[in-house]
């Protein structure tokens, strides 16, 4: 099994951090295929940046989907997820959705703890997008400056744990999700300091992707995520244009 770990941000260091967690979580026989965006922003932290990252994610999937069995959009907030699911035939996992669905199997309500106040409204909208508002005890955000986003979990570990504890004791959260790519790998480090399950977003995504591949479901030909009809394009990257125009049929036959 080959799983694409698709980082729609431009930070190679963030991809490496997520890959380390993915490698620890994957089953024997699963190969992780990491890819980092070559344009865009170092990390997505706003709705506008999420729109840009989602479009770049579609371009990256168009380049790589023939060579993998599933893909993870490795940015919390799941930019481009629904568009990817309708455009491509392989299982596509969103990091936020995977973490939230896993959390829903561990408790009645989850809380998301993250590292920047700017992320709060977008993450709340992501929860609503997935129909999980009633299961969410809220999004808790750091309200203090950070030196460097890539080092935020080391710099702010104690504060993040305190935020998680407040969500448990004041908001009745049954599960904590450490949200945002820079917090990947923090969950197992702090699990013994928090009295409820703590979900790691990347580990949850890997296990969900393996599950979906194992179920061997087929691409929907009807319903929400059916592939759109062919349409002409102008100016798009070749691989994405071929996918939208349905001119990649020969490549699909060769890959199969």
Which of globular, elongated, flat, extended, rod-shaped describes the shape? globular
User: What's the domain count?
Assistant: 2
- Output the CATH class name of the largest domain: Alpha Beta
Q: Please, what is the average pLDDT?
A: 92
Helix content: 40-55%
Proportion in β-strands: 5-15%
- The DSSP helix count reads 11
Second rung of CATH, namely the architecture of the largest domain:
3-Layer(aba) Sandwich
Secondary structure class reads alpha/beta
Oligomer: single chain
Lateral arrangement of strands in the main beta sheet: 2-1-3-4
Could you give a short account of the major beta sheet? 4 strands, parallel
- Output the helix-strand order: EHEHEHEHEHEHHEHEHHH
Number of E-type strands: 8
Look up the CATH topology of the largest domain.
Rossmann fold
Q: What are the segments in which pLDDT stays under 50 over at least 5 consecutive residues?
A: none
Q: What would you say this structure looks like, in words?
A:
Helices cover 45% and strands 14% of the residues. The chain is α/β, with parallel strands linked by helices and 256 residues long. The chain folds into two domains: 2-95 and 206-255, Rossmann fold (3-Layer(aba) Sandwich); 97-200, 3-Layer(aba) Sandwich (Rossmann fold), CATH 3.40.50.12500. The strands form two sheets. Strands 2-1-3-4 form a four-stranded parallel β-sheet, with helices on both faces. It has a four-stranded parallel β-sheet with strand order 6-5-7-8, with helices on both faces. Strand 5, helix 5 (119-129) and strand 6 form a beta-alpha-beta unit. Helix 1 crosses helix 9 (201-215) and helix 2 (47-64) runs parallel beside helix 3 (81-87). The radius of gyration is 18 Å and the shape is globular. The model has no long low-confidence stretch (mean pLDDT 92).
């Amino acid at each position: 099994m080959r799983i694409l770990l698709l980082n729609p941000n431009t930070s190679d260091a963030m991809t490496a951090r997520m890959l380390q967690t993915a490698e620890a979580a994957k089953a024997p026989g699963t190969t992780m295929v990491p890819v980092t965006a070559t344009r865009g922003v170092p990390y997505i932290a706003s709705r506008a940046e999420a729109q840009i990252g989602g479009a770049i994610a579609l371009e990256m999937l168009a380049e790589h989907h023939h060579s993998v069995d599933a893909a993870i959009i490795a940015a919390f907030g799941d930019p481009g997820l629904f568009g990817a699911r309708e455009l491509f035939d392989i299982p596509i996992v969103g990091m936020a959705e995977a973490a939230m669905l896993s959390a829903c199997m561990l408790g009645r309500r989850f809380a998301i703890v993250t590292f920047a106040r700017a992320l709060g409204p977008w993450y709340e909208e992501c929860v609503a997008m997935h129909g999980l508002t009633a299961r969410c005890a809220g999004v808790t955000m750091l309200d203090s400056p950070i030196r460097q986003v890539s080092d935020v979990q080391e710099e702010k570990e104690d504060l993040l744990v305190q935020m998680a504890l407040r969500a448990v004791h004041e908001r009745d959260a049954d599960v904590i999700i450490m949200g945002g790519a820079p917090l990947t790998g923090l969950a197992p480090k702090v699990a013994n300091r928090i009295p409820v399950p703590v979900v790691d977003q990347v580990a949850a995504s890997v296990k969900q992707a393996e599950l979906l591949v194992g179920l061997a479901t087929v691409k929907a030909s009807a319903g929400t995520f059916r592939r759109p009809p062919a349409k002409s394009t102008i100016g798009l990257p070749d691989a994405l244009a071929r996918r939208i125009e349905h001119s990649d049929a020969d490549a699909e036959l060769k890959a199969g």
